[in-house]
Amino acid sequence: MRYSYFLVALGQAAFALDSEHVELEKRLDNGLGLTPAMGWSSWNVAQCASASERYALDTANKFVSLGLKDLGYSYVNIDDCWSTKARDSSGNLVPDPSKWPNGIKSVADKIHGMGLKMGLYGCVGTMTCAGYPGSWGHETQDAKLLASWGIDFWKHDACYTPCTNGQTPQTCWSAAFNTRPWYETMRNALASVKSTKNIMFNLCQWGRDSVWTWGKEVGNSWRIEGDNWQDWASVQRIGSTAGRIYQYSGPGGFNDLDMLIVGNNKLTENQERLHFGLWAICKSPLILGNDLNKISSASLAIIKNKGIIDINQDKLGKSATTFQPPGSGAPVSGKIHPYWAGPLSDGVVIGLVAINGATTMSVNFKDVPGLGSGTYSWKEMYSGRTGSGTSVSFSLGTHDMAVVKVTTSGGSQTTQAPTSSRTSTSAPPQNTGGGCQSEKWTQCGGNGYTGCTSCASGSTCSFVNGTFE
Ranges for the CBM1 domain (predicted)? Predict the structure, then answer.
């Protein structure tokens, strides 16, 4: 298994994570997911009934006709229930012929012909969450089948898995639960077919086992919470968690905040703007969970906001997190914090949220991590307002959000750490010259890498294809 080491540096907007050196993180190196995936998933539309050829091709056509393809939406992902209830005599998964009269490969070929990609769903356990065959004991066989069909994306759920008390019902909540080895098995199976088809791997295990601490070595994205149940409470719960674990996202592996519910008439328009904006600045995959035949013009405008999409797809790939301007309160678990900020390759993004009612939200740039005293140019992405100065202020309705991109070509930048910033607890690094520093343990992950694993502050370190040299 090949890994790359990516700097936990936050680029031009220098959110300081360590005052002495910047560490490198080991990530799965399959060449995919360098920015968050963008696409659509079938489940919210009609659950099992939408896991079909008709919905896949209709959505692909909508991506083109609605202009979504041109904005980067590319994955047409079919969720649970696409197969028959039993494998064939050779142990292979079988597409349900009533849903896939022309087979899955034929559909994948058509989707590829439109310049798009196709994804499928499976499960770690013996069955999927809806009771269809899971991949337990068939991982390599399933990976070969997916590659032969040309599948680009695999979502791996966590139902019907073994537990300390043997085979379980749909879910297992044992205190001794450990999902990592099961996902590593599928990771290895997908890696074995990479020469035939390189498949993006999504870990859908509901944020258990602190997946964000190891998911980057196993997949290209990982769910950080339970399902988005298509309500405001879910948006708050998931958004609150995202602010606490921002540091684990980066190119090649991102925190997945679950499907977007914009366009499902489950949220107010203000809440939809907040939902999309927060998912975007936290660098979550932007996977639509809606019926594009029924989406309103207002909801369509939200998911087509190019400025916000560009922030999500920024090549630096670093998530925003919460911060506390003077006089503001600390983040509250289960609630969305009013103040967010994160680094971009060419500036800083600020999120301002009217969480407790209609209000005017203001912030001085000197109080924003990554900025400092001075005058900056800015643009708010929903309204299109632009300006320059030392602060910004917006009148927002209840549960609305302003997403502000600040250009850091002026001013005097600081290295203020955001809320819940991470610091190194390892022994002081040993300088090996040339700006390269070596940690106490230089053999990383048993994968033959013996080079240095950090870069001295103020030094320049070289990279080749994302791998530290």
Answer: 436-469
Terminal C-alpha separation, the chain: 18
In terms of residues, how long is the chain? 469
Active-site positions read 157, 227
Q: Which two tokens stand for residue 75?
A: 């994955």
Q: What is the DSSP string of 260-321?
A: B-TTSSSS-HHHHHHHHHHHHHTT--EEE-S-TTT--HHHHHHHT-HHHHHHHT-TT-PPPE
CB 426 within 8 A of CB 406: no
At residue 38, the 3 state secondary structure works out as strand
Residue 131: CB atoms within 10 A of its CB come to: 14
Strands (E), 408-443: 430-431, 436-438
Q: Output the pTM of the full model.
A: 0.84
pLDDT number for residue 409: 67
Residue 209 has pLDDT above 80, yes or no: yes
- As given in the structure block, the two tokens for residue 268 are 């107010």
- Rounded to an integer, what distance in angstroms lies between the CA atom of residue 338 and that of residue 229? 22
pLDDT tens column, 329-373 = 999 999 999 999 999 999 999 999 999 999 999 999 999 999 999
- For each of the domains in the chain, give its residue range(s) and CATH number, in order of start: 28-312 (3.20.20.70), 321-407 (2.60.40.1180), 426-469 (no CATH)
CA-to-CA distance for 95 and 75, rounded, in angstroms? 19
